Amino acid sequence: MAYVISEDCMACGTCLDECPVGAISEGDIYSIDPELCADCGACAEVCPAGAISPAE
Ligand code: SF4
Ligand code: SF4
Question: Which domains does the chain carry?
Fold first, then answer.
């Protein structure tokens, strides 16, 4: 399991500092490395766009 970032991402950067394992990368749309994501949900709680959710 890992969290994923959707196309709703506004590239605001809020989630970047919330990740305890450094799994989030910057970009036009931010992305989460599924190999690193610890499934904690911290990033999803702070995203103003609601763009982060658990993978199906
Ligand atoms: S769910 Fe947790 S570990 Fe995974 S990307 Fe978000 S903050 Fe990082
Ligand atoms: S907090 Fe949400 S909108 Fe902002 S960069 Fe992260 S995923 Fe994108």
Answer: 1-51 (3.30.70.20)
* Coil, helix or strand at residue 42: helix
Of 5, 19, 46, 53, the one to substitute when testing ligand 2's pocket (max ligand atoms within 8 A of C-beta) is 5
What residue has token string 């103003």?
Answer: 48
Token digits of residue 16: 């970047």
Å from CA of 52 to ligand 1 middle? 9
| pLDDT means over runs of 10, the chain (56 residues) | 96 98 98 98 98 94
Query: Which residues sit with their C-beta closer than 6 Å to ligand 1?
Result: 3, 18-19, 21, 23-24, 32, 37-43
Confirm whether pTM is higher than 0.90.
yes
